[in-house]
Amino acid sequence: MASNAAVPFWRAAGMTYITYSNLCANLVRNCLKEPRRTEALSREKVHFSVSKWVDGKPEKPTIRSDTPEE
Amino acid sequence: MLRHAPRLLSRATSSAMRWRRPFSTNVPAETPVDAKFVESWRSTIPNIEPPKTPSAFMTPRPPTPSTIPSKLTINVVLPYNSIFSAKEVDMVIVPATTGQMGVLPGHVATIAELKPGVLSVHEGNDVTKYFVSGGFAFIHANSVADIIAVEAAPVDQFDQNLVQKGLAEFTQKLSSASTDVEKAEAQIGVDVHSALNAALTG
């Protein structure tokens, strides 16, 4: 069991596999031809709201979104 | 180093709650029910049906046929769509990190991580090529291959100009990168775009 196996360069730089994979997918989507490109780019947009819980109550949520605020 | 892990693990789990699972190459075709567990359940709790374990709900793995099948069944899936679902083909060439891997019916069971590259599906005389951004390929012993990609599209859906612009941009970023993270990102950009370029021109 090699525990010091040659790690991929992105892991050596501190990136996780998911970040690497999403980055690759993103770059590929950016190279598509027009109608597919716009649908593909909309696919990776995320919108979520996060709230921390303190003393059993949620605090004000922060919204993280790629869509512009309406 | 971890050879003893299965033994230690099976000792640690509570008696009869889990049936001993050998390596997946030996998984039987029918789902076994742990008779000892069911028996001890019934003796202590006769009124309630013994609970079913998740494996009882799963369809058992189809047995490996003794003769090599003539066609390979592939399932190519993306997170939002499935390109091929149980399609019978002659061969697929998969862009694994260790190089282009050709998969024929009867291929040894393999798990391969994919790098950005071209997936070509050969059916008779037709070859359809898809560019895959990354993912995994699971080839099972019964000639079923599951290819899971994060993003994939037919090669003719890509715009050559955008690819070349991207390649030039990232090569430039690579030479001007300072931190490790920037270098890694630029390197990834260069890799992906050069693979795309090769796919479009090759």
Automatic annotation (TrEMBL), chain A:
<dbReference type="InterPro" id="IPR006721">
    <property type="entry name" value="ATP_synth_F1_esu_mt"/>
</dbReference>
<keyword id="KW-0406">Ion transport</keyword>
<dbReference type="InterPro" id="IPR036742">
    <property type="entry name" value="ATP_synth_F1_esu_sf_mt"/>
</dbReference>
<comment type="function">
    <text>Mitochondrial membrane ATP synthase (F(1)F(0) ATP synthase or Complex V) produces ATP from ADP in the presence of a proton gradient across the membrane which is generated by electron transport complexes of the respiratory chain. F-type ATPases consist of two structural domains, F(1) - containing the extramembraneous catalytic core, and F(0) - containing the membrane proton channel, linked together by a central stalk and a peripheral stalk. During catalysis, ATP synthesis in the catalytic domain of F(1) is coupled via a rotary mechanism of the central stalk subunits to proton translocation.</text>
</comment>
<keyword id="KW-0813">Transport</keyword>
<keyword id="KW-0066">ATP synthesis</keyword>
<keyword id="KW-0496">Mitochondrion</keyword>
<dbReference type="Pfam" id="PF04627">
    <property type="entry name" value="ATP-synt_Eps"/>
</dbReference>
<dbReference type="GO" id="GO:0042776">
    <property type="term" value="P:proton motive force-driven mitochondrial ATP synthesis"/>
</dbReference>
<comment type="similarity">
    <text>Belongs to the eukaryotic ATPase epsilon family.</text>
</comment>
<dbReference type="GO" id="GO:0045259">
    <property type="term" value="C:proton-transporting ATP synthase complex"/>
</dbReference>
<comment type="subunit">
    <text>F-type ATPases have 2 components, CF(1) - the catalytic core - and CF(0) - the membrane proton channel. CF(1) has five subunits: alpha(3), beta(3), gamma(1), delta(1), epsilon(1). CF(0) has three main subunits: a, b and c.</text>
</comment>
<keyword id="KW-0472">Membrane</keyword>
<protein>
    <recommendedName>
        <fullName>ATP synthase subunit epsilon, mitochondrial</fullName>
    </recommendedName>
</protein>
<keyword id="KW-0139">CF(1)</keyword>
<keyword id="KW-0375">Hydrogen ion transport</keyword>
<keyword id="KW-0999">Mitochondrion inner membrane</keyword>
<dbReference type="GO" id="GO:0005743">
    <property type="term" value="C:mitochondrial inner membrane"/>
</dbReference>
<dbReference type="GO" id="GO:0046933">
    <property type="term" value="F:proton-transporting ATP synthase activity, rotational mechanism"/>
</dbReference>
UniProtKB/TrEMBL annotation, chain B:
<dbReference type="GO" id="GO:0005743">
    <property type="term" value="C:mitochondrial inner membrane"/>
</dbReference>
<keyword id="KW-0813">Transport</keyword>
<keyword id="KW-0406">Ion transport</keyword>
<keyword id="KW-0472">Membrane</keyword>
<keyword id="KW-0809">Transit peptide</keyword>
<dbReference type="InterPro" id="IPR001469">
    <property type="entry name" value="ATP_synth_F1_dsu/esu"/>
</dbReference>
<feature type="domain" description="ATP synthase F1 complex delta/epsilon subunit N-terminal">
    <location>
        <begin position="72"/>
        <end position="144"/>
    </location>
</feature>
<comment type="similarity">
    <text>Belongs to the ATPase epsilon chain family.</text>
</comment>
<keyword id="KW-0496">Mitochondrion</keyword>
<keyword id="KW-0375">Hydrogen ion transport</keyword>
<dbReference type="GO" id="GO:0045259">
    <property type="term" value="C:proton-transporting ATP synthase complex"/>
</dbReference>
<keyword id="KW-0999">Mitochondrion inner membrane</keyword>
<protein>
    <recommendedName>
        <fullName>ATP synthase F1 complex delta/epsilon subunit N-terminal domain-containing protein</fullName>
    </recommendedName>
</protein>
<dbReference type="InterPro" id="IPR036771">
    <property type="entry name" value="ATPsynth_dsu/esu_N"/>
</dbReference>
<dbReference type="Pfam" id="PF02823">
    <property type="entry name" value="ATP-synt_DE_N"/>
</dbReference>
<dbReference type="InterPro" id="IPR020546">
    <property type="entry name" value="ATP_synth_F1_dsu/esu_N"/>
</dbReference>
<dbReference type="GO" id="GO:0046933">
    <property type="term" value="F:proton-transporting ATP synthase activity, rotational mechanism"/>
</dbReference>
